[in-house]
Amino acid sequence: MISVEQAKKILAENSERGQIIEKKLGECLGLILAENIYSPIDVPSFDNSAMDGYAMNFDENSRSWVVSNIIQAGDTSEINIASGKAARIFTGAKIPKGTNTVIPQELIEVIEVDQIKYIGDKISSGSNVRLKGSQSKKNSLILEKGQIFGAGQIGLFASVGVSQVKVFATPKVGFIVTGNELKEPGTPLKDGEIYNSNGPMLEALLKESGVKQIKSYKAPDDKASLQKIIDQALSENDILLLSGGISVGDYDFVKDCLNAAKVEELFYKIKQRPGKPMFAGKKDKKMIFALPGNPASVHSCFIQYVRPSIKHWLGKTAVWEADHKLKITEDIPKKPGFTYFMKGRKVNNSVELLKGQQSFNLQAFATAECLLELPAESSEVTAGTKVKVYDL
Ligand code: AMP
Ligand code: MG
């Protein structure tokens, strides 16, 4: 049996990265940029007006001008404004030659149809002109690789005209829930049966982690059937998760079947609660995680081992670290030798333990915001001690 730290180290060394592929900008939300992006153009690519108003060559001594042109946003013609003249101009329109300043229309009095007068005192030469390149200079670095695509990044790229980028491909992930006792929510239960909560939970955890291609499988506790489903799921996915059947019971066949499928063991059993009998393996570049069947174990093992490994695949860095170190609000007794992962809630910059921490009990998930980690060596962690906290 290995420690949590050893398990994470082994996974960090063995986790794979997705292939670098080209994607259209509109398909990049949530993906990770796999190249540095330099702006192909100056943005703005021309000096333009920041206001609806009038453009002229401003000088302190003159306050009235004759309007000789009207320039709309999108007008691409070359316009020259003579000295003493002004152009009616609108936000985003190209600043015409012969002018350097825009006076907003609110500060202008129209004396006659084509005669205007400036009635303010704050304008100086250059006011209200957005200069070429003032957002992005041509060939300047606008985003480093490793950044995740959100709406802002997509908007920035669109503004410089980038329509296709290199990103890390997302993995195809399959999960197999095992157990004869499982029924789907929405169907009646016989005595001795339970609802399959791991399946829907795993699917949601995968989606929350940025996985887009997900396949679910169900296997009975029968070796031949399980083997068939494992072989099929391995051939169809990059990452395979299993729930249940990995412990020491007479009907726990997952480990035997993974061996038969030539999955190489990275580790089996971690000194942790919940989730001791967790298995991780590899077959070529495929990652395999067999999680114990108890729902809290599935959830905790996913957050600690599967999610970081998926994030690594997606191209993220620093995926193995805790999100915070926060003080706990009460004394928590524990058995030394095992790392505990417990469901908690953040309160005033501390973390509070929730009721119902047993590995079969899902009630705490109704309000849990994080998992807190109690170190293996301690026999009691006292109130006020800072512990590692992982956001859900
Ligand atoms: P196992 O590891 O297969 O012995 O399962 C451990 C416990 O988790 C048993 O009480 C199972 O009934 C339960 N369990 C296994 N799979 C699921 C599932 N998909 N949803 C809810 N509970 C499960
Ligand atoms: Mg089982």
UniProtKB/TrEMBL annotation:
Listed under catalytic activity are: adenylyl-molybdopterin + molybdate = Mo-molybdopterin + AMP + H(+)
**What are the record keywords, sorted?**
Magnesium, Metal-binding, Molybdenum, Molybdenum cofactor biosynthesis, Transferase
Which Enzyme Commission numbers does its entry carry? 2.10.1.1
Q: Establish whether keyword Transferase is in the entry.
A: yes
**A Gene Ontology cellular-component term:** cytosol
In alphabetical order, the GO MF annotations are: metal ion binding; molybdopterin molybdotransferase activity
Q: Name one GO biological process term.
A: Mo-molybdopterin cofactor biosynthetic process
Recorded hits in InterPro entries, A to Z, give: MoaB/Mog-like_dom_sf, MoaB/Mog_dom, MoeA-like, MoeA_C_domain_IV, MoeA_C_domain_IV_sf, MoeA_linker/N, MoeA_linker/N_sf
The enzyme's main class, written as a single word, is: transferase
Q: Which SMART domains match?
A: MoCF_biosynth
Q: Where are the transmembrane segments?
A: none
* Cited function: Catalyzes the insertion of molybdate into adenylated molybdopterin with the concomitant release of AMP.
What family does this chain come from, according to its entry?
A: Belongs to the MoeA family.
Q: Which NCBIfam families match?
A: Glp_gephyrin, molyb_syn
Record's protein name:
Molybdopterin molybdenumtransferase
What's the source species for this entry?
Answer: Salegentibacter salegens
